[in-house]
Amino acid sequence: MMNVPLTISSMLERAENFFPKKGVVSRTLSKTHRLNYKEIGERTRRLASSLERLGIKEGDKVATFAWNQHRHLETYFAVPSLGAVLHMVNIRLSEEHISYIINHANDRILLIDEDLLPIIESVKDELKTVEAFILMTDQEELPETTLEPLYSYEDLINQGDKDFQFRKDIDENTPAGMCYTSATTGNPKGVLYSHRALTLHSMMLGMADTLALSESDVCMPLVPMFHVNAWGLPYASAWYGTQLVLPGPNFTPEVITELIENEKVTITAGVPTIWLGVLNLLEKEKREMSSLRAVICGGSAAPMSMIKKYEEDYGIPFMHAYGMTETTPIVALSRIKSYQQELSNEEKLEIRSKQGLFVPGVEMKIVNEQGPVEWDGKDMGELLLRGNWIADSYFEDDRTIDTFKDGWLHTGDIATIDEEGTLKLVDRTKDLIKSGGEWISSVDLENALMAHEGVFEAAVVAVPSEKWLERPVACVVLKPEYKDKVTEKDIIEFLTPKFAKWWLPDKVLFIDEIPKTTVGKFLKRELRSQLEEKMSVS
Amino acid sequence: MMNVPLTISSMLERAENFFPKKGVVSRTLSKTHRLNYKEIGERTRRLASSLERLGIKEGDKVATFAWNQHRHLETYFAVPSLGAVLHMVNIRLSEEHISYIINHANDRILLIDEDLLPIIESVKDELKTVEAFILMTDQEELPETTLEPLYSYEDLINQGDKDFQFRKDIDENTPAGMCYTSATTGNPKGVLYSHRALTLHSMMLGMADTLALSESDVCMPLVPMFHVNAWGLPYASAWYGTQLVLPGPNFTPEVITELIENEKVTITAGVPTIWLGVLNLLEKEKREMSSLRAVICGGSAAPMSMIKKYEEDYGIPFMHAYGMTETTPIVALSRIKSYQQELSNEEKLEIRSKQGLFVPGVEMKIVNEQGPVEWDGKDMGELLLRGNWIADSYFEDDRTIDTFKDGWLHTGDIATIDEEGTLKLVDRTKDLIKSGGEWISSVDLENALMAHEGVFEAAVVAVPSEKWLERPVACVVLKPEYKDKVTEKDIIEFLTPKFAKWWLPDKVLFIDEIPKTTVGKFLKRELRSQLEEKMSVS
After folding, report:
1. Residue B533 pLDDT > 90, yes or no?
2. Which of A106, A101, A231 lies closest to A519 in space, CA to CA?
3. Which of A214, B35, B172, B271 makes the best surface tag, with the fewest CB within 10 Å?
């Protein structure tokens, strides 16, 4: 058999050749752009040739600091097709971390969305490796800025070669992309994605039993393109000729629902916080959501009560995805097996609220101190992963040895698996509550709390206990209309029938907001330190 | 990223772990077997350990001479998991070719279906490399035979180790399977399939825009397991936990429709001859076919009139597939793009009757003496292919240089491609009729002929012409009830409105049967020599 390298550029070439009538809807600051894949392909070739002229060569890093828009999409293909690496910088990091990761990755060029320019201007003196900046803007004139040299993206497109040939001889194990994941302590850790990993991950996203991404879909990734390749959706969409909708900067629930209505979006993906916001809107105003065949939710566990509302109240199929920056990211999806279709709606919802089945191409085991766990849905252990889109190290980082051992990624996620092979995340290793030698899942308690009609959000964390080592405390954000109307006693009574007595939180604190990470996950470390202050004061 | 070899055994392991309730229905000579994937997995491990005990090691060839049944399926996984190569011998070859390919492949062990034993007995003196025979039978006692040593398959299963560990360290480019394709002249040519090719091909079969093979399917490959890996369906089905129905020896249209009814088959695949036979049955008797979501037809072009009948008269979705022994095999499928759904039924049928869109992972070009053809649906050229499941050579065969040139497989198929990228096969290079410097497609004429109500089958071949170099002659098989009721003049008049005058056959011959290859394709070489006799007599 031939051994043809699995490369990023071949995905775009398929779109150019076979789907020139399909393309991208892109919302930027000033307008909505519509480009077909032939145009995207031509612009990508022009961009690649200009980057090459600026000196970018194999192994170099090119960084983006941008929203989900068509120019960002073009960098997704142009940079790897030169054998270079696209570093998608998380725009929500602290300034300290932004300059750290750009320096650490050794980025030579930085492409910036116009409204994000001030952030880069304020860190520019810290940047040691960047030789040139490129501004992604619809404006013809470049703004006044302290950055230099600063090129106009569209000028580079105009000056580029539309017939530029993508490299065909790239080894498929060459890095194509890069993202950093925030660490519990210290600086973010970098993950390199190879051409092979991104291509195989894209094949997987098209499978009928995963996302079933198809030419007939209209796909809107709300998950940022600076966060784990927007879950791989831009690559797979181009490959399959799927229409892409890129929502641009600062989108709100209003913008999201408007794009779904206008563009007839069939599949969209984002973190639970986004879906909570959209749900709030839907509860107030009627929107036409009937084009949606799947809402993909990942990043952290979506509460069952939310899944139920989407499915039952609005008829919107909701699918849980599980993955992490180190896994490209998708490794599991909550799908119902054919013979489970006969179960009751409640039972199916129960399955759908779990992280689901491992996708083809990923190997897993769940282990605790006693070895591999029983597949009984109860025995808890740490999830270990292996596969072609699973990282084997952090980029030039000593912390590699803590996470990658014996050929397996140690996810730090505590999970159970049942006899059907359904994954259920119980907690992060560090968030698990170890009470009197037993484990309590903060996630299970949170899901139960969020099913209470008055609760908007809830997080459960461990506080030190002399007797039990650790005990759970619940931090609850009430919906505005329930403020001061729900008591600690109400909450505990609500939980009591659902859990063993020793699982019940020792305390329920009502707070205004749960601190979150830059990608919308609960920041429990921060919550614990707030709590320590509060508890020591009280 | 990790680089984990893409290997056959990981597909079966997923079935064992995640789909132990799904499995295989297997029809053998004596009964219908039902085994789940846990049992298939255990039996495969036992078989692999027994083969290893018999001396099979990495690189060795193990051959099968068998129908589509569960034991054949077990060899599909057991042999490659030892690093050995499964040679699936085409049982319909001549005795001369059977012994040639077994010797040429250097097969050490031969597994035989019980009813096929006499064929092997009669060639046994020609076999130079086979050291042991294994009989696949439901019977406890082995029959009297001249083959020796002869082992019982089930004895080897019983003696095997159910906890045998599949090898994890196999290089993904290692050959896993092997089939021979018949040549126009001379001996068959061998094609080796690597673990990488078979795995990537299996990923492709699961894509929503290809076959969308899913856990929820019940898949019945009618295409023989000795013919290009049964189009990859056994591998992909196990991987996805898809229920498999294996129809066993000598199945008839009655058996096929009964299995579809009883097992609620959702997807099935075979050559046009099979579907013509089933259609004949359906026209006589009512059958419950509503479980079918796709009939996959490949091997040679299905006439549009047949596709139309399946779709319109019986509501059975019909999908054209294109591929060959050298391509693992699937490279194109006739699917309608989303925006083509608005076309009329006739226009959609027209698209469905073509070979369709190239699947993700395959590169193509169509070239003639002037270079690449226009994508206008008219310009004809030879189809060239490149990709990870495309062969790069024939196994130890000098004819490699005729077919594999400059990194491309030269298919020998003459095709057109339209502006949507839809492939249409026009002819085999050798069957194309070159009349007065222009090309006439025998396939187009055949399709038109088969749309005539009285025509059962038709083939068009070139006969030498002094003036025009070549001219087309049509060989027509009438349906029994139309015998002697349709004349040459009727046929020519039927064709006249559809073609340029110089395309019309010079002669229409009514014959009893069109000679076919072992896999049901028209054997035009044979037809031409029959014709030469006839024409020289007349």
Report:
1. no
2. A231
3. B35
pLDDT of residue A520: 76
Span A376-386, mean pLDDT?
95
Q: Verify cis geometry, omega within 30 degrees of 0, for the bond prior to A253.
A: no
Mean pLDDT of B75-91: 97
Per-residue pLDDT tens over the stretch A424-460: 988 877 788 888 777 888 888 998 998 899 999 999 9
Residues of A identified as active-site: 181, 326, 434, 439
Give the count of beta carbons closer than 10 Å to the beta carbon of residue B466.
Answer: 6
**Could you tell me where the DSSP H helices lie in A369-472?**
400-403, 442-450
Return the residue matching tokens 């990761």. Answer: A101
Residue length of chain B = 538
Could you tell me where the DSSP H helices lie in B353-501?
400-403, 442-450, 488-495
Query: Alpha helix (H) ranges present in A54-165?
Result: 70-78, 95-105, 117-123, 153-159
**B374 exposure class (CB count in 10 Å sphere: 0-12, 13-18, 19+):** middle
CA pair distance A108, A127, nearest whole angstrom:
10
Averaged over B469-494, what is the pLDDT?
Answer: 93
Taking the C-alpha atoms of residue A511 and residue A523, their distance in angstroms, rounded to an integer, is 14
Neighbours of A436 (CB within 10 A): 12
ipTM score for this prediction:
0.90
String of DSSP letters for B41-103: HHHHHHHHHHHHHTT--TT-EEEEE--SSHHHHHHHHHTGGGT-EEEE--TTS-HHHHHHHHH
- Encode pLDDT of A4-30 as tens digits: 999 999 999 999 999 999 999 999 999
Distances (CA, A) of A341 to A305, A349, B185, B245: 20, 11, 54, 21
Q: Look at strands A408-417 and A423-428 and give their pairing.
A: antiparallel
CA A163 to chain centre: 34
User: What mean pLDDT is predicted for residues B503-510?
Assistant: 93
Q: Distance between CA B509 and CA B507 in Å, rounded?
A: 6
Q: Residue A183's CB: how many other CB atoms inside 10 A?
A: 14
Catalytic residues of B, by residue number, are: 181, 326, 434, 439
Q: What is the pLDDT of residues B430-446, one digit of tens each?
A: 788 888 777 888 888 99
Which among B200, B240, B360 has CB closest to A239?
A: B360
pLDDT digits (tens, 9 = 90+) for A488-514: 999 999 999 988 888 999 999 999 999
Q: Residue A214: which residues within 8 A CB-CB, separation 6 or more?
A: A206, A240, A242, B208, B209
Place of tokens 């996950």: A521
Q: Do B204 and A209 touch (CB under 8 A)?
A: no
How far apart are alpha carbons A334 and B69 in whole angstroms? 33
Q: What is the pLDDT of residue A184?
A: 66
Q: Residue A160: which of A58, A244, A81, A65 has the closest Cα?
A: A81
Residue of chain B whose alpha carbon sits nearest to that of A340: B216
Helix (H) or strand (E) run with residue A7 in it:
none
The vertex-A230 CA angle with A225 and A233, nearest 5°, equals 125
Look at residue B538 and tell me whether its pLDDT is greater than 70: no
**Strands A381-387 and A404-405, sheet pairing:** unpaired
B417 is written with which tokens? 């491609």
Buried b (16+ CB within 10 A) or exposed e, A510-534: bbeebebbbbbbbbbeebbebbeee
Distance CA A433, CA A446 (A): 13
pTM of the model: 0.90
- DSSP 8-state class, residue A175: E
- Type of residue at B259: L
A18, A357, A387: residue with CB nearest B2:
A387
- Which of B1, B214, B390 is nearest residue A192 as measured by Cβ atoms? B1
Q: Which is nearest to B239 in space by CA: B6, B4, B1? A: B6
